[in-house]
Design a protein that fits this description.
The chain is built from 14 helices and no strands. By secondary structure, the chain is an all-alpha fold. The protein has one domain: Hydantoin permease (Orthogonal Bundle), CATH 1.10.4160.
Length: 345
């Protein structure tokens, strides 16, 4: 029983990692298209490389948090880059989490528009559901991820397999593959920053074996869905420009009932990532001593008006920019074990 409990605890953290990562950008296909599929047929190989670097980074962050018993991400930042740069990245993470959470809310509006629900109504629905999650507490969020993320991953994998097996679309090269390595590393850098905020808080209560389970499980889950999804996007490359949400370019080949189901699952992915983003921001405001649901409500009043820029425009502009800016922190994470070993000599 203890071994099963340890394994399940690690698996829950893996679901939290995947729930934070598979949000509006990833689950909709827009993020994978911008960073990988748009570069051509060999892009799936770089997807694997990127996720491997990603899982190693998650392992290092959780290990640091567990060792220093971090209460929020500022403790981990100080350990990674020192006090001065840590303060700069503290501010940067807050701005980053704010803007990417805006993208989640914009993603909700875009996803529900497909079903003739007004954009602003889709944004407001997500806001209400996020607020309800914080009334229940963050432990409930982790449990929710443990249910929703396996469903999300299995649904996306099933849709991609059905699409490929049916022979829909045609796999073609679309652009030069010259810069795909830098794009893959940028993708890792982009996705790791919000996880610093989340994993810094949960890592202190984990055992080393639970950290290993979480890191390996998230690598397997993300790799399986990302590679299949990327291969599917390569087969609809000529249609991507016509869709705000690339996933709908795939779903047009299937029944209305399946499209409705997958649309709901897509929205759930957006929901779990939005919760993680809001939690990352309000966990930094621990000194205000206010209820988390109240902080979350105030934050959403700030976020919702910012969604007017549109989902695909926000992804295309902000995602590559943040990825480049995050390269330094990614390098410090990956080099941390070597730097720590040198200090111990």
């Amino acid at each position: 029983m203890p071994n099963i409990r340890v394994f399940w605890n690690g698996l829950k953290i893996a679901f939290l990692i995947m729930g934070t990562t598979i949000g509006a950008g990833f689950a909709s296909g827009r993020e994978l298209w911008e960073f990988f599929a748009s570069y051509g047929s060999s892009s799936s190989m770089y997807v694997v490389l990127s996720i491997l670097l990603f899982s190693i980074s998650c392992y290092i962050i959780l290990t640091i948090s567990q060792r220093i018993q971090a209460h929020n991400y500022t403790y981990v930042l100080k350990e990674l880059v020192g006090s001065k740069l840590g303060k700069m990245y503290d501010f940067f993470i807050l701005i980053y989490l704010l803007s990417t959470t805006v993208i989640m809310f914009a993603g909700s509006g875009a996803a529900l528009q497909y079903w003739s629900i007004p954009y602003w109504a889709g944004v407001a629905i997500l806001g209400v559901c996020v607020l309800l999650a914080f009334i229940k507490g963050f432990e409930g969020v982790i449990s929710l991820n443990s249910i929703l993320i396996p469903v999300l991953i299995m649904t996306l994998i099933a849709v991609c397999l059905m699409f490929i097996e049916a022979g829909y679309g045609e796999k073609t090269d679309v652009l030069s593959e010259q810069n795909i390595l830098s794009s893959a590393i940028t993708f890792t850098a982009f996705n790791i920053l919000p996880l610093i905020a989340i994993l810094s808080v949960v890592g202190r209560s984990l055992k080393p074996v639970e950290i290993k389970v979480a890191s390996v499980a998230c690598a397997i889950g993300l790799c399986a869905v990302a590679v299949l999804y990327n291969e599917t996007l390569l087969r609809i490359s000529s249609d991507i420009m016509f869709y705000e949400v690339p996933l709908y370019a795939i779903l047009r080949y299937f029944s209305v009932e399946l499209t409705l189901l997958v649309s709901f699952v897509l929205w759930l992915a957006i929901y779990t990532t939005a919760i993680s983003g809001v939690f990352g921001i309000i966990s930094r405001a621990e000194k205000l001593y206010l209820p988390k649901w109240l902080l979350a409500g105030g934050l959403m009043l700030l976020i919702i008006p910012m969604t007017r820029f549109g989902f695909s425009n926000l992804v295309k502009l902000l995602y590559p920019l943040y990825g480049v800016l995050n390269l330094f922190i990614l390098a410090m994470i990956l080099l941390y074990p070597l730097a720590k070993r040198e200090k111990m000599r």
